[in-house]
Amino acid sequence: MAHDTRVKICGLTETADIPAAIVAGASYVGFVFFPKSPRHLDLEAAQFMATSVPEGIVKVALTVDADNAMLDELTQHVPLDMLQLHGKESPARVSEVKSRYGLPVMKAIGIESETDLTQIDFYAKVADQLLIDAKPPKDAERPGGNAVAFDWSLIAGRRWPLPWMLAGGLTPENVGEAVRATGARQVDVSSGVESAPGVKDAQKMVDFVTAARA
Ligand SMILES: O=C(O)c1ccccc1NCC(=O)[C@H](O)[C@H](O)COP(=O)(O)O
């Protein structure tokens, strides 16, 4: 039986990635603003790409511990539907960003062991969505987008009172099992639909969405 799993494809870098992600069936597209990432976009490129996203597809900007000056500039230049906070932002900072910009906020939470789950309850009170991702490896250059999965059994059967996405090391090959193991209704992918870091692959995007919904 097919499911209506919603897919976010994160880290689009080329204008042609937008129609490819939409044809594949993505419900969300993500733009990364983190200079050390191979997926980093400058504001001009992001504005151009975001403007070509049709109504109904959620445009998400991913930032890492961004200050107000950076978020002011981002939100003034790029038409956005959601902010994804992927750093060490506190619950209070999540609330502040939400009220300052009037956009829904998705907070990313890195999971490696059972103890990492406790913070979820604090963020669940203030965020609009959660991104339950793998904790980055110790030597990682970035806090996400590392093609690393966490132990899905840690969240099997868990439910939270807000929408959430599963992320971390998902691929067309493992996303079906990940959805079954966790009960996720939404999934997020970046590396798993690339042919090289920062280069999205149209066929992998189709394969991923198809497998997520199978
Ligand atoms: O993708 C990046 O380069 C990135 C940089 C800095 C912070 C977060 C980043 N990506 C986060 C994402 O939303 C990814 O989609 C998520 O972590 C899953 O990534 P992957 O394991 O590569 O699918």
From TrEMBL:
Its EC number is 5.3.1.24. Pfam families: PRAI. Keywords: Amino-acid biosynthesis, Aromatic amino acid biosynthesis, Isomerase, Tryptophan biosynthesis. It comes from the Bacteria. Pathway: Amino-acid biosynthesis; L-tryptophan biosynthesis; L-tryptophan from chorismate: step 3/5. Residues 7-210 form the N-(5'phosphoribosyl) anthranilate isomerase (PRAI) domain. GO terms for molecular function: phosphoribosylanthranilate isomerase activity. One of its GO terms (biological process) is L-tryptophan biosynthetic process. InterPro entries: Aldolase_TIM (IPR013785), PRAI_dom (IPR001240), RibuloseP-bd_barrel (IPR011060), TrpF_fam (IPR044643). It is an enzyme of class 5 (isomerase). It catalyses: N-(5-phospho-beta-D-ribosyl)anthranilate = 1-(2-carboxyphenylamino)-1-deoxy-D-ribulose 5-phosphate. Belongs to the TrpF family. HAMAP family: PRAI (MF_00135). This is N-(5'-phosphoribosyl)anthranilate isomerase. The gene is trpF.
